[in-house]
Amino acid sequence: METIQVVMDKKLLLAADQAARRTRQNRSALIRDALREHLHRLRIQVREARDREGYLRRPQARKEFLELEGEAAWPAE
């Protein structure tokens, strides 16, 4: 692992330390986990944006939905 230096305001540092204690982790582990989660969410956002752009460029035809309508299992109301 590499050692880095991160600058943050005191309020955020206190919140991080409290969260680390609650989760029984050290501060570094908490920050690593938070960063991993954030990066994962960013990857999902990029994929969703790419998919959205693709569907906007080539929208599905109504016929495509109708073919699947009969296969859908809708819950009873």
Tell me about the largest β-sheet: none
Uncertain segments: none
Shape: elongated
Domain module tally: 1
Task: Tell me the structural class.
Answer: mainly alpha
Q: In angstroms, what is the radius of gyration?
A: 22 Å
Strand content: under 5%
Helicity, in percent?
55-70%
Mean pLDDT: 90
Q: Write the H/E string, N to C.
A: HHH
First-residue to last-residue Cα separation? 54 Å
List how many beta strands DSSP finds.
0
Descriptors:
single chain, 77 residues, mainly alpha, 3 helices, 68% helix, elongated
Walk me through what this model shows.
This protein is an all-alpha fold. The chain has one domain. The protein has helices at 10-22, 27-57, 62-69. The mean pLDDT is 90.
How would you summarize the topology of this molecule?
Elements (H helix, E strand, L loop, with lengths): L9 H13 L4 H31 L4 H8 L8
Helix pairs in contact: 1-2
